[in-house]
Amino acid sequence: MASRRKLALYLVLGLPLLLLPLSFSVVAAQQTTTGEISGLKFVGMALAILGSTIGAGIALHGVAVGGSALLAENPKAFTQVLILGGLAEGVAVYGLLVAFLIMGG
C-alpha cells in the first residue's frame, strides 16, 4: 500500500517535469524582439532559483538536525549553529544572484 502511495506521489510530482521540455520547446520556437528576454532565459532563471533553494533547504535541514543535537548537549554553541544556518541560507542567495546575471546577459 505504501509503495503505491509513493508511486502516485512520484507520478504527480514528476509528471510536470516530464512535460516541461515540451513547453520549453514551444517557448523557444516563438520569435522574440531584441528588447525582450527570451523564454529560455526565464527557464534558466527558474532552474537557478529552484536548485539553489532546494539545496539551501537540504542544508538547513542538516543544520537543524545537527544543531538541535548539539544544543541539547552544549547550549553555549548557539552562535555557531546560527552561523551555520546563515551559511546554508546563503546558497539560496547565490542562486538568486545567478538568476539576475542570466537576466542581464
UniProtKB/TrEMBL annotation:
GO terms for biological process: proton motive force-driven ATP synthesis. Keywords: Membrane, Transmembrane, Transmembrane helix. Its main location: membrane. The chain crosses the membrane at residues 44-72, 81-103. It is found in: Membrane. It is a multi-pass membrane protein. Gene3D superfamilies: lithium bound rotor ring of v- atpase (1.20.120.610). GO terms for molecular function: proton transmembrane transporter activity. This is V-ATPase proteolipid subunit C-like domain-containing protein. It comes from Candidatus Korarchaeum cryptofilum.
